[in-house]
Amino acid sequence: MNKSDCGIIYEQYRKKVLGYVSSKINNRSEAEDVFQTVFLKICKNIDKYNPDRASLSTWIYTITRNTVYDSLKRMRSHPEVELSDDISEQSETVEDCAIKKVSLETLAVALEKLSPEERDVIILTYYHGKRKNEVADILGITYGQLRYLHDRAIERLGKLM
Amino acid sequence: MNVSGLLKNLFDYQRFEDNKRLQALIEETENRCIYKLSDEDLEWVSAAGEESDFNYNKDDDCDE
Predict the structure, then answer these.
(1) Chain A window 60-79: which residues touch B at a Cβ cutoff of 8 Å?
(2) CA B30/CA B18 separation, integer angstroms
(3) Which residues contact A67 (CB under 8 A, 6 or more apart)?
(4) Rounded to 5°, angle at Cα A46 from A43 and A51
(5) Which residues of A59-94 are buried (b: 16+ CB within 10 A; e: fewer)?
(6) Distance CA B32, CA A120 (A)
(7) Residue A10 with chain B: CB contacts under 8 Å
(8) pTM of the prediction?
(9) In this predicted model, what pLDDT tens digit does every residue of A9-47 receive, in sequence order?
(10) CA geometry: angle at A65 spanning A59 and A68, to 5°?
């Protein structure tokens, strides 16, 4: 791939990049800057993209995620900018992400095999990032019941995935 | 990587890739919990599909 593909890549991936950036950064101005930075990086480095290492989607996701992470780290020193996500995790390598495109479908299939309650626990905890006591409150169950459902769901998913 | 770590990474990737089958399950949970989730939690249900007036000029970014 080369720089002449930038326009096509922008059209194909702008919604995905936008969706991801918007889900992580509530400040519109900062989100817009990050959005533009992502595509600048893509265009600048497209010559270096190696399809043997990862799919194009994985490569773009990695750039997006790392750019968001860098932005959130910078914004930590500016409390007036609202953060929407925990940034304790480190940036991932492309290799770390390589399995994910296949695994999203695998995850969906595995989640379908859980009970609705177990699925709610997993989605509220790992997609919405809710703490266990918050999940228990949302579901109207005790903390002990929540822990049981969570641990059972994790065990089942470990076997299914 | 343990299952919890894998789930966290996969769901993060879902915010980018928007796998339809997985998104349907997420929305099913959100519909069940709609009265307890905040507006902010639900704000991104269709974020990936919404248009934006973010400005990006494809023509002024490829110079070395």
Answers:
(1) 61, 64-65
(2) 16
(3) A34, A37, A38, A41
(4) 150
(5) bbbbbbbbbbbebbeebeeeeebebbbebeeeebeb
(6) 9
(7) 56, 58
(8) 0.78
(9) 999 999 999 999 999 998 899 999 999 999 999 999 998
(10) 140
Handedness of CA A137, A138, A142, A148 (dihedral sign): negative
Identity of residue A2:
N
Residue type, B32: R
Structure tokens, A18: 């936008």
Pairwise CB contact (< 8 Å): A158 & B44: no
Residues 6+ away with beta carbon under 8 Å from A125: A132, A135, A150
Query: Binning pLDDT at 50, 70 and 90, where does residue A78 land?
Result: low
